Amino acid sequence: MSGAQLPGTPFKGTFTVAVTGASGFQYGYRLLEVLVAAGYQVFVMVSKAAHVVAVTEADMKLPAQAAKLQQVLSENLNAAPDQIRVFGREDWMAPVASGSGSPEHMVVCPCSTGTLSAIATGASNNLIERAADVVLKEQKKLILVPREAPFSTIHLENMLKLSRMGVVILPAAPGFYHKPQSVNDMVDFIVARILSHLGVEQSLMPRWGREGSTPD
How many Å is the Cα radius of gyration of the chain? Predict the structure, then answer.
């Protein structure tokens, strides 16, 4: 189980997080930040389009090279050695490319509708798509966080197809019952929901009707 202590490592478990080119880079970055702070190891993939979105939405220029990006993320998020591992677009030797090495849980956050379509059809043209395909074939947990408006019939049909396979479709649509005071509060709402589905304890947001727990 991903939430269990990994034998021989200081980490509580390992998750795969992919960040693609949909609007909402902040959701993915915040998810990484919280998982690292909570003591989990994270396998990270960032699409080319996500690099563009990161500059546009967060004024964050990410290195194109996987090794340099890993160094930058590790420094920015105060990660322990080897806690963040970044894999390139065609790194087919990465653990996430095989069922024998892939973590049990993968999140694509945000998930572009193009990536969603590729996953729904099993395209596997890059490592993000292949990693999602591995999670599906191994019957592990896949969470997709689409951010688009409005959704076309194609988008909805792809989501329905994936939902029937057991994929969690968690749109980046924050609620307002917690009375958000900032954009960060709205980002945390979605991240809290993701963490809830991952089985990770968090204090970002209270559960509905329960003080001090996760929202449902």
Answer: 16
What is the domain range of residue 143?
14-198
Beta strands of 9-166 (E only): which ranges?
14-19, 41-46, 84-86, 105-111, 141-146
Pairing relation of β-strands 41-46 and 105-111?
Answer: unpaired
- Classify residue 43: in a domain, yes or no: yes
Residue 214 is predicted with a pLDDT of 45
pLDDT tens digits for 4-17? 555 667 999 999 99
Length of the chain: 216
Indicate the number of domains in the chain.
1
- Domain containing residue 43: CATH number: 3.40.50.1950
- In the chain, the amino acid numbered 145 is V
**Residue 56, CA distances (Å) to 10, 22, 51, 114, 213 in order:** 35, 12, 9, 19, 33
H or E stretch covering 168: strand 168-169
The confidence band for 207, taking pLDDT boundaries of 50, 70 and 90, is: confident
Q: Is the dihedral of CA 9, 12, 13, 18 positive or negative?
A: negative
Closest Cα partner for 46 from 67, 75, 21?
21
pLDDT at 205: 84
Pairing, β 41-46 against β 141-146: unpaired
Q: How many CB atoms lie within 10 A of CB 195?
A: 21
